[in-house]
Design goal:
Layout lengths: L10 H12 L2 H13 L3 H29 L3 H8 L8 H32 L10 H9 L2 H20 L1 H29 L4 H9 L7 H15 L6 H6 L8 H29 L9 H13 L3 H34 L4 H20 L9 E2 L2 E2 H28 L2 H9 L9 H24 L4
Antiparallel strand pairs: 1-2
The structure holds 4-fluoro-L-phenylalanine (PFF).
Length: about 450
């Protein structure tokens, strides 16, 4: 007997789950580091442009595909444009999600290890100069890395096993408001540190000399990563949206909240970094090496550390849940598997990729693909190939192939809302701006330009 497809129960729940997908390590760890590296304000300006010109239109195009059919990408393309070869890209989305979630879970494992050590009080008892060694020793320890990664994935799949409403939606409803509240507390705390204005200046002063061409490309890739575009995640989530949800409003709300979290994360990190005389360009180390130093010097440091890693854990798990939902929904819809079976199959596949990634800094450090270890290779190929390719395909499909009346019906809910300016704007961005911008990024990465 065919199982009934259960969607999100409420509009708020659907938005919370989608914001939960968008807000993750990308906002709290990657965005501040990239902003710091690429000159602060100028990078943020270009990033905001990317959100408006590429992010929101592509997000809406994924919503149109998912909500109009209540199916994953393959089923949706078959229904909307029978016989179209575009359905092949659904497999690329599923593969991209498995690979991205595989390496992303390893970083989530690091987060729980740091949360655990902070809670036990063992993290902050070290001298500040030891934090770099502690992090290096931890990622080079195969048992530890694999154990925390598996613990994380187990929690992730436990939530998923509760289903869309009781698992995904309920989790997001609790976690997202909590995350905002914690971020605001951290912002206030950071801004009150002595010398914090230097960090604010660094983050918001616009200086294009420091940005460069590479910074522009970074900003585009970050916009895709941050908004969860291109791996059919938003097609999958919007397939669970109710028919009366307002796609235009939802896309703008979700993108704005995601961007707000990224900027708040910058305001948490940089004033503190400058206040304590640390290096704003510390990069991936920023959270795991630099922040413990900051917590150590704060009154009640252990509590701040625990709260920070709890926040990062919330942000990460709501993202991995959405990544895992892509193959699960695909298998349930396309191969008629029961949800528990699809969850087990996805868990096994992701588990294998995650364990291989977790061992990239130890047992498998000699295994390289195009000169990168497994973790770094997936970190590169996930956002820079799978997400961009998926974004390009979605833009071309909705911009050029899909019938205009499907787009109009979805944007206006069958004529209930007006879309006089939004629709032409979206179509223009999907037809011209997104394809040109993404092709330029591809040419840049492949070294053609
Ligand atoms: N948007 C998430 C982040 O910023 O961390 C990562 C992500 C989630 C990417 C879901 C892709 C996805 F489908």
């Amino acid at each position: 007997m065919k199982e009934k497809r259960v969607g999100f129960a409420t509009r708020i729940g659907a938005i919370a789950a989608t914001v939960g997908s968008a807000v993750g390590l990308g906002n709290i760890w990657r965005f501040p580091y990239q902003a710091g590296y690429n000159g602060g304000g100028a990078y943020i300006l270009v990033y905001l442009l990317c959100i408006v010109l590429l992010g929101i239109p592509i997000m809406m195009s994924e919503f149109i595909i998912g909500r109009s059919t209540h199916k994953n990408m393959k089923g949706a393309v078959e229904q909307l444009t029978p016989g179209s070869p575009f359905k092949i890209f659904s497999y690329i989305g599923v593969l991209g999600a498995l690979l991205i979630c595989g390496y992303y879970s390893v970083v989530c494992g690091w987060v729980i290890e740091y949360l655990w050590n902070s809670a036990c009080g063992s993290l902050l008892e070290h001298a500040p100069e030891e934090f770099s060694n502690i992090f290096g020793t931890f990622i080079a320890s195969p048992d530890c890395c694999v154990m925390w990664t598996i613990i994380f994935l187990t929690l992730n799949f436990l939530v998923l096993s509760r289903g869309i409403q009781k698992g995904v939606e309920r989790m997001a409803n609790i976690m997202m408001p909590l995350l905002f509240a914690l971020l605001i507390v951290f912002c206030v705390n950071s801004l009150m540190l002595p010398g914090s204005t230097k960090g604010v200046d660094f983050l918001f002063s616009i200086n294009f000399d420091k940005l460069g061409w590479e910074g522009v490309v970074d900003a585009m890739g970050q916009a895709f990563m941050s908004l969860s575009l291109g791996v059919t995640c938003l097609i999958t989530y919007s397939s669970y949206f109710k028919d009366d949800s307002n796609l235009m409003k939802d896309a703008v709300t979700i993108s704005s909240l995601d961007t707000l979290v990224a900027i708040l994360a910058g305001i948490v990190i940089f004033p503190a970094v400058f206040s304590f005389g640390l290096d704003p360009k510390a990069g991936p180390d920023l959270i795991f090496i630099t922040l413990p130093t900051i917590f150590q010097q704060m009154p009640g440091g252990t509590i701040w550390a625990v709260l920070f890693f709890v926040l990062l854990f919330f942000a990460s798990i709501t993202s991995t849940i959405s990544l895992s939902e892509i193959p699960i929904t695909f298998m349930v819809d396309e191969y008629k598997l029961s949800r528990p079976k699809a969850i087990i199959l996805t868990a096994v596949q992701m588990g294998i990729i995650a364990v291989l990634s977790a061992l990239s800094f130890s047992t498998l450090s000699d295994v390289t693909i195009f000169g990168k270890n497994i973790f770094n290779f997936l970190d590169f190929v996930g956002p820079n190939f799978f997400m961009l390719l998926g974004g390009l395909v979605t833009a071309v499909y909705v911009g050029w192939i899909l019938k205009k009346d499907v787009i109009h019906n979805q944007l206006t809910n069958g004529g209930m809302h007006r879309s006089r300016f939004v629709q032409p704007y979206i179509i223009f961005c999907l037809r011209y701006i997104a394809p040109v911008a993404i092709v330029i990024i591809f040419l840049y990465y492949t070294g053609v330009i």
